[in-house]
Design brief:
The chain is α/β, with parallel strands linked by helices. The protein folds into three domains: 179 residues, NAD(P)-binding Rossmann-like Domain (Rossmann fold); 79 residues, 6-phosphogluconate dehydrogenase C-terminal like domain (6-phosphogluconate dehydrogenase C-terminal fold, Orthogonal Bundle); 71 residues, 2-Layer Sandwich (Alpha-Beta Plaits). 45% of the residues lie in helices and 16% in strands. The protein has 14 helices and twelve strands. Strands 3-2-1-4-5-6-7-8 form an eight-stranded mixed sheet, with helices on both faces. Strands 10-11-9-12 form a four-stranded antiparallel sheet, with helices on one face. A hairpin with a 6-residue loop joins strand 10 and strand 11. It is globular. The two termini are 30 Å apart. Its EC number is 1.3.1.12. It is an enzyme of class 1 (oxidoreductase).
Length: 374
């Protein structure tokens, strides 16, 4: 999948031209550099850490910025607690350039810049909804933003040409630009990003003192719900502190829900207890169904669970035979229990192809463990 994505990036004509200055050579900054570099864009990298800068350059994210650079676009990709300082510095140093940042919080830096009296005519806050559990230039990848939303926070003073530059950057990187106010953005990410990080971390923390025997029972569900708990604490302290109020609002509502479920389970035979638990699970079903699917559509897929032998090449053969059946795999999840001689490939497909896929795979000797349709 990555190969085809990278090829598509290389063959597209860039909307972005001239020098693009990227300040901050970590995961996001370096990934932007890799993607633009594949399009032939001149990427000038700057970073407060000389070693981080050299590493990003060695990995091909761009070249070192020079004093005589005249960037048309500047992307600030630094930690949240220094966003306002760096944006102010870049706006003053390059008054003819458009400056954007990719911080995950938009309102606090904007308030700080306005309080300092900075001319924000050529500043547009933005935020790509993309990332990885690992950070740094070594984890960067050109396809990091492909298919991801990229929020652009413009105001009534934003020149149309400046907006076009930032949205063009997002499109060049394969992302989907979405316009929001800073307030809308921060409330939204509190719900879909910041609180999920806390919930995953709190759940994963329960594992620290868990018996080894319990951990040997771990399945894909626990891995799915704790995956992002591997994120860097230092960065998240900054993010959560900068967006505390919306996060607390969501956490308060979540705490209320937890109290209802806890109360019901303390007396599961009491009137209404089972309904309270069932309603909680049902509301979760409804919430999941609202999540955007592939290509940003609110689209629900059906699932086929295929048993695969724990031998080399089996997954490749499964994908190859699904391709022969002209069945597109929308999503994939693998589960393999320690000590088992087989794994389970949970494949998401559009509903209209389920029966055809099942019949075709069974005819080729695959064992279907289950499907979400009868």
């Amino acid at each position: 999948m990555t190969e085809s994505t990278d090829t598509s990036v290389r063959t597209r004509a860039a909307r972005t031209s001239g020098v693009v200055r990227v300040v901050g050579a970590g995961l996001l900054g370096s990934s932007i550099g890799h993607a633009l570099g594949q399009l032939g864009v001149d990427v000038a990298l700057a970073d407060a850490s000389p070693s981080q800068l050299r590493l990003a350059i060695d990995y091909g994210a761009g070249r070192a910025a020079r004093d005589d650079d005249r960037p048309v676009l500047i992307v600030v990709a630094v930690p949240p607690d220094v966003i306002a300082d760096v944006v102010e510095r870049e706006l003053r140093a390059f008054p003819d350039a458009v400056v954007t940042d990719v911080a995950s919080v938009k309102l606090e830096p904007l308030h700080a810049l306005r309080a300092r009296g900075v001319d924000l005519t050529h500043y547009i806050g933005s935020h790509p909804m993309a990332g990885r559990e690992r950070g740094g230039a070594i984890a960067a990848r050109a396809d990091l933003f492909v298919g991801r939303p990229w929020v652009v926070c413009r105001d009534h003073e934003t020149p149309a040409s400046d907006l076009a530059l930032v949205e063009g950057l997002a499109l060049d990187l394969g992302a989907t630009p979405l316009e929001m106010t800073p307030e809308e953005h921060d409330r939204s990410v509190a719900l879909v990003s910041h609180v999920p990080q806390l919930v995953a971390s709190l759940l994963a923390a329960r594992l620290v003192d868990a018996p080894d025997g319990s951990l040997r029972l771990t399945g894909q569900g626990l891995r799915d719900t704790t995956r992002i708990a591997a994120s860097a604490p230092e960065l998240w302290v900054q993010i959560l502190g900068a967006n505390a109020e919306p996060v607390v609002d969501v956490l308060g509502a979540l705490a209320d829900d937890l109290r209802v479920v806890s109360s019901a389970l303390r007396a599961p035979d009491s009137p209404g207890a089972r309904r309270a638990v069932a309603d909680t699970i049902r509301r979760g079903n409804e919430g999941v169904e609202r999540l955007p699917g592939k290509h940003g559509q609110n689209r629900r897929f059906e699932t086929i669970v295929v048993m695969i032998d724990d031998t080399p090449g089996q997954l490749g053969r499964l994908f190859g035979e699904l391709g022969e059946l002209e069945v597109n795999v929308e999503d994939l999840r693998l589960e393999h229990s320690p000590g088992a001689q087989f794994g389970l490939a949970e494949i998401s497909v559009v509903p209209s192809t389920v029966r055809h896929a099942v019949e075709g795979l069974e005819a080729r000797g695959w064992k279907i463990a289950s499907t979400t349709v009868d």
